[in-house]
Amino acid sequence: MESFNSQFLYSILIIALGYVLKRSNLIQERDGEGLSRIVFNITLPSLLIITFHDITIDTSLILLIIIAIVYGVAQAVLGLIVFRDKSQRTKGMLSMMVPGFNIGLFAFPLVEAIWGQEGLKYFGMFDFGNALIVFGVVYVLGSYFADENERKDLRDVMKKVSKSVPLLTYIIVCTMNFTNIPVPGAILEVAGTISVANMPLSLLLLGIYLNFSFAKGSFATIAKLLSLRYIVGLAVGVALFFLLPFEDMFKYTLLMALVLPISMSVLPYSVEFNYDQRFVGTVSNMTIVISFFLLWGLGYMII
Question: What transmembrane ranges does the database entry give (predicted)?
Answer without folding.
Answer: 6-22, 34-55, 61-82, 94-116, 128-146, 167-188, 194-214, 226-246, 252-271, 283-302
